[in-house]
From TrEMBL:
Bias kind Basic and acidic residues: ranges: 111-131
Lineage: Eukaryota, Metazoa, Placozoa, Uniplacotomia, Trichoplacea
PANTHER family: U1 SMALL NUCLEAR RIBONUCLEOPROTEIN 70 KD (PTHR13952), U11_U12 SMALL NUCLEAR RIBONUCLEOPROTEIN 35 KDA PROTEIN (PTHR13952:SF6)
Name recorded for this polypeptide: Uncharacterized protein
Subcellular location: Nucleus
Natural source organism: Trichoplax adhaerens
Keyword annotations of the record: Nucleus
Length: 131
């Protein structure tokens, strides 16, 4: 009997970095054909237009949250500890990934897989092939 392995088709949400698909982002194995929760439906039906007035390079965009205002970020700052706080350097997707939908509209990366969020990822919690 041949083993039916649906994971042969599994790919990470950002493996090809071509475009963002909320249905694939919300699917544990990337094979869902129907949305399973309201966040995915909201992401699929939302219309998001990236800010075209921003003239900076998306590869050099910096957002700092919950840090001391005197803290500076260095070239190799990812996972660095400053004042007992871990620094996470993440990529900007708004201007680099076609079809990107922010987390507030049901898309995005972030969340914790332990809490049932399937859209976890990024450098802090990288995508892993489901077991």
């Amino acid at each position: 009997m041949a083993e039916d392995n649906t994971f042969d088709n599994w790919v990470s949400l950002f493996s090809h970095r071509g475009s963002y698909d909320p249905l694939r982002a919300g699917s544990i194995d990337g094979t869902d054909s129907l949305a399973h929760d309201r966040a995915v439906i909201r992401a699929m039906t939302s219309r998001y237009k990236p800010n075209t007035l921003v003239a900076t390079d998306p590869n050099r965009t910096l957002f700092i949250g919950r840090l001391n205002p005197k803290t500076t970020e260095g070239k190799d700052a990812n996972k660095m500890m400053i004042d007992s706080s871990e620094i996470i350097v993440e990529h900007e997707y708004e201007r680099k990934l076609k079809g990107w939908i922010p987390r507030r509209l049901g898309g995005g990366i972030g969340g914790k897989k332990e809490s049932g969020q399937l859209r976890f990822g990024g450098r802090d919690r990288p995508f892993r092939r489901p077991m």
